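Please fill in the sequence for the structure shown.

STRUCTURE ENCODING:
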């Protein structure tokens, strides 16, 4: 967990394979469902095309669908690990729904990592972000540039700056995070699940700190 620009996606992509987990980001789930043309994917596409936020119940339904796939894969022996949620849950309603979904499977959250970065650093990071218009892969003009300027390494698509990746909209989004998501951290702290990691460090250092934090929570449990 962490504010926009804290590095959740970057770190989840590095941490998940080291811990033998499946990286679950709701944005990726949205795109996969749309590409597959499922009924749920069509609902998500209609919502996004209308410029609206995907409702909590639809987001949770997508997460639940993916968890079902992972459980089936574990049963078949094709995967043995759990899941690493990237930026989910974002609201108390999502958090409560996730707890219910996991409890119904006899599973539970085992650690919550909060990546902390100063506000001005977040604004700087987000203003330099570029996103592939085709596949959604994220880059940064300074910290994570593509091999060829303006071109996605993964699919060759054009890199664009999102309209909301400018200082004014960025501060508004960070304000929403503080209002909606930050209170969840207090809940997870009370449950003994939360460890805060300094995200204003080199990427490799943050990765190692997250690995250590997960081990710390598991040891305490």
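FILLED IN BY: designer on duty
SEQUENCE:
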């Amino acid at each position: 967990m962490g504010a926009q620009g804290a590095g959740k996606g970057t770190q989840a992509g590095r941490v998940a394979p080291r811990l033998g987990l499946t990286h679950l980001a709701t944005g990726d789930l949205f795109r996969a469902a749309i590409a597959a043309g499922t009924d749920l994917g069509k609902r998500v596409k209609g919502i996004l095309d209308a410029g609206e936020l995907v409702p909590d119940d639809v987001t949770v339904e997508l997460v639940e669908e993916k968890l079902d796939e992972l459980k089936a894969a574990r049963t078949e022996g094709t995967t043995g690990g759990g899941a690493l949620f990237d930026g989910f849950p974002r609201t108390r309603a999502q958090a409560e729904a996730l707890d219910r979904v996991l409890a119904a499977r006899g599973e539970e959250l085992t650690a919550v990592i909060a990546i902390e970065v100063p506000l001005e650093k977040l604004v700087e990071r987000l203003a330099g972000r570029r996103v592939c218009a085709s596949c959604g892969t994220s880059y940064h003009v300074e910290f994570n540039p593509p091999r060829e300027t303006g071109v996605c390494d993964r699919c060759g698509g054009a890199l664009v700056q999102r309209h909301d990746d400018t200082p004014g909209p960025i501060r508004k989004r960070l304000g929403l995070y503080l209002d909606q998501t930050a209170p969840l951290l207090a809940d997870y702290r009370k449950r003994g699940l939360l460890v805060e990691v300094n995200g204003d460090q080199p990427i490799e250092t943050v990765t190692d700190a997250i690995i250590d934090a997960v081990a710390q929570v598991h040891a305490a449990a």
